[in-house]
C-alpha cells in the first residue's frame, strides 16, 4: 500500500521545494521590507523564459539558464525597486495595486516577447528521461531538482541562522521598528530584499521551467500558490514557508490520490483556517 | 470629511443632475452604450459594497465577489422560475446576506492584510464551488440562457435594450439611495467609528465585531443585488463572471474612486469598464496590458485618494495604529 | 467637504460621458462593405494560440477570395473572446449592437459559445461557430463547422475496443468541455462491451485549469493494470500530461486521445509525444484537392502547420461565402437571408474531405481520422493512419 503513495510523495516533495524557492523570496520581501509583491509570479515566469531561450540541450546551457534566470530576477527586482521607492509609506493596498499592475503589464509584454505558448527548456539528454525509483519510473530531472533545491534551502537556512545578515533579517521580521534602530536606510533594505527575492524567483523560474514551465497562465498560478504558502507559513517566516511549501506540495500531489473530491478546496481552505487561527490570536491588532 | 454624505445643497444638486443624466440617456445613446452602462449598474453595486467594507468600515476586501456570485446564481434560478426582476433582486440580496452573515463571523475578526487574504480565500472558494457544483450552477459553462422576465409582476419581459437599461439603472439607484440613507443615520456614524478608533469604541462599550458583522451582512446584500442586476443585464452567469479578475478589477475601481466614497466607487467602475469594454476591444488582445497600465497610472496619478484610503485602513506606515 | 462631493459627482458624470462618447464615436455603423461579419476568438488568455489559428484561417479564406463573400465586399470585425463568457459577452455585444454585423463566426470556448449563442438567437443573427460547441436545444440561428464535443470520443471508441486487449483508463479535465469529450468515448466504449480500468468504473477528473502536475494520477493509472489510456487535453494541460506521461510508470501503456497533440502543443511536447494515437476530423496530410490548396495557401503565409482550428474557421468562411453567393444580386444581404441560405447548402468541399450540415444539430456530418505522432524528417507531425467512422448523423 505504501508503494502506491511513494511516487506521489516524492513528486510532492519536488513540487513543494519548487514552491518554497519561489515563496521564500515573497515572504522575505514581505517580512523585511513590508511589501506585498503581487508581481512575484511574473518574476518567476521571466526567469523561466530567459532560461528556456538559452537552453540548448547541453549542461552548459542548463547552467547558463540558471544564471540568466537569476539575472532576470535581479533586473525585475531593480524595476520593482524603482517603481516602489516613490511610494514609500503609502501602505499595503497601494503596493498591492502597483505590483498587480506591473504583473498584468509585465505579463502582457513577456507574452509579446516570447509568444503565447507554454514553453519548456531543451534539457541535456541524460536528464530528459526517467530513472528507476524503488521499482517505479520517476522523471530524472525532478530527482535532480529535489537535490539542488534542498541544497538551496539548506544554504538559505544557514544564512538566516548563522550569519549577521541573517540575524538582522530575523530581528526586522520580528519587529519592524528594528530597521530604524539598526540605522540602515530603509531604501537600501528594500533594494536588498527585492534583489535577493527577485533573484530567488528568477532561479526558481529557471530551475522549475521543466516542471512548471513559463506561459501566460503560469504567473498568476505561481503567485497564488506562493501566497498560500506565505500565509499558511506565517507572513515573513522563512521556516514557516518551508513547512507550508512542503505541505502544499503534498496536498497537490498526495491529496489528489487520497482525497480527490476535496483536493480543489484544500489549499484555500487551509489558507483561510491558518489566517483565522492567527487572526483570533492577534485579535484587534493591525497585521 | 465623509464624502458619502450628500447634505450640502450643491452636493444634492450635483447628484440630481447625475441621476437625471442617467435616466435621460436612452433618449440620446445607442443600444451598445446602454448595454455597457447597464453592465456598470451590477458591477457598480459590487463596487459600492467593496467601498462600504474597504473604505467606510475599514476592512479591505477582495471577497465581495462571493456574495455577488451567490446573488447572481440565486437570481438566475429565480428567473428560471419566471419570477419578476424585483423578486430576483430581493431574493438575491437576501441569499447574499445570509451567506455574508455566515462567513462574516470569521472575517470581522481580521484586519488589514490578513482581512484582504481571508476574503481572497473566500472569494476563490466560492468561484471554485461555482465551477464544481454543476447541478446548481451549470458548472464551468455557467447558466448561459437565463430567460427574460418582467421587472414587476404582470409587466412586459425585459428584452429590449432600453427597457433592460432603465430597469437595471433604476434598481441600482434605489439600492444606492437606501445605502446612502443608512450611512447618514446613526448606524453609519457607528460604522465609521469602528474604523477610525476601534479601541475607543470598545472602551465605550460598543460591540465592534457585532457592528462590523451587520455591516458585512448589509454589504453582502448590496453585492448580491449587484449579482441580480448582472443577470438582468447580460442574461448569463458563469464562473468567469465571479472570478479573481473581476474582484481585482472592482477593487481597482474602488481605489481609483477613493475607497471611502460610494459615488467615487461608481465613477471608478465607469472608468474601468470604459477601458475594458470600449477601448480594449479596438485593440484585440491588448486588454491585460491596458489594465496593467491603468493600475500603475492610478497609483501614481491619484495619490490623494490612495493615501487617504491607506490612512483610514490603518495600513499607512506613517500613521500606523490610526 | 462640499468640494469633495462636487468633484466626485463631476467625476461620475465625466466618466459616464466618457463611456458614452467613446461608445458613440467608436462605430461607423453599417461598415464600409456590403456585408459585415463579426469574428470572435481568444486573442489573449489561455487559448490564444487556438484563437490566432482560427482568426488566421478565416482571414486566409477571405484574402484568397478577393476579400469578398458571394461577390459582396466583406467588412470583417474581429473581437477578443479572452478567457471565457465574462470577456466574450461584452465583445460579442459590441459586434451586435455597435458594429451591427450581419453574421457572427468563430468562438474558441464552449462556455463563450453558449453565452454568445443566446445573443445570436435573440438578435436573430446567424452564428457560424468554428470550435468548441456544447449541445444546445434551440439552434435555429446556430451553425457549426467543427463538431459537437462528444463526437471525437464516439468516433474512436470502436477502434479502441477492437484494438486494445483489456480495460481502458479514462481521464480528462474537470470542466464542461472535458465532460462532454469523455462522455462520448466512455458511453460508446462501454456500450460496445468495453470495461473501464478506473477502479470505480467512472472517468477520473483532474481539476482544471489548476492541474499542472499529472504524475500522481499517472502513477495511479499504472497501478490499475490498464491496457490503454484515453484522455482529452488541450493547450498547456496537454503539454504537461504528455511530457509527464512519458516519464512515468504509465509510459509503456498505449495513449489515445482527442486533440492532445494538435497544434502548437506538439512542439512543446517534443519526443514524448511520439507514438500517441489521436482522433480528429482533420490531418494536414489528407490527400484531396481542397486540402492541397489550403495547405499551400497556409504554408505560403505562416511558418506553422495548419491545424483543425484553422481549417474549421476557413470552412466557416467558406460556408458564409457559399451561402451569400446564393442570395440573388438584386436582393439585400440580410441576416435572415444568410441564415436561410446556410440551411440550403448541400455538400461542402473542404480540406477535411466533404461534409454537410446535419439538419437537426446544424453541425457537420463528417469523417473522423486516426492519426499517430511520428517524425516527419526533423519535425514531429500527426500522420494519418486510417479513416474512422462518419459521425454526426
UniProtKB/TrEMBL annotation, chain A:
InterPro entries: ABC_transp_permease, BCAA_transport_permease
Main subcellular location of this protein, as a coarse class: membrane
Subcellular location(s) of the protein: Cell membrane
Cellular component aspect of the GO annotation: plasma membrane
Gene Ontology terms describing biological process: amino acid transport
Record flagged with keyword Iron: no
Membrane topology: Multi-pass membrane protein
A GO molecular-function descriptor: transmembrane transporter activity
Transmembrane segments: 12-39, 59-84, 96-114, 141-160, 188-212, 224-249, 256-277
Protein name: Branched-subunit amino acid ABC-type transport system permease component
Automatic annotation (TrEMBL), chain B:
Transmembrane segments annotated in the record for this chain: 39-58, 89-108, 113-133, 164-183, 210-231, 246-275, 287-306
GO CC annotations, alphabetized: plasma membrane
Keyword Flavoprotein appears in the UniProt entry: no
Origin superkingdom: Bacteria
Membrane topology: Multi-pass membrane protein
UniProt keyword DNA repair present: no
Pfam families with a match to the protein in the record: BPD_transp_2
Keyword set, alphabetical order: Cell membrane, Membrane, Transmembrane, Transmembrane helix
An example Gene Ontology molecular-function term: branched-chain amino acid transmembrane transporter activity
Localization per record: Cell membrane
Main location: membrane
Protein name (record): Branched-chain amino acid transport system permease protein
Organism: Phytomonospora endophytica
Taxon lineage: Bacteria, Bacillati, Actinomycetota, Actinomycetes, Micromonosporales
UniProtKB/TrEMBL annotation, chain C:
Originating species: Phytomonospora endophytica
All copies of domain Leucine-binding protein, residue ranges: 35-377
PROSITE patterns associated with the record: PROKAR_LIPOPROTEIN
SUPFAM superfamilies reported in the protein's UniProt record: Periplasmic binding protein-like I (SSF53822)
Family: Belongs to the leucine-binding protein family.
Entry keyword Signal: yes
Protein known as: Branched-chain amino acid transport system substrate-binding protein
Source taxonomy: Bacteria, Bacillati, Actinomycetota, Actinomycetes, Micromonosporales
CDD domains (alphabetical): PBP1_RPA0668_benzoate-like
First and last residue of the signal peptide: 1-23
Gene3D superfamilies: 3.40.50.2300
Pfam families: Peripla_BP_6
Keywords: Signal
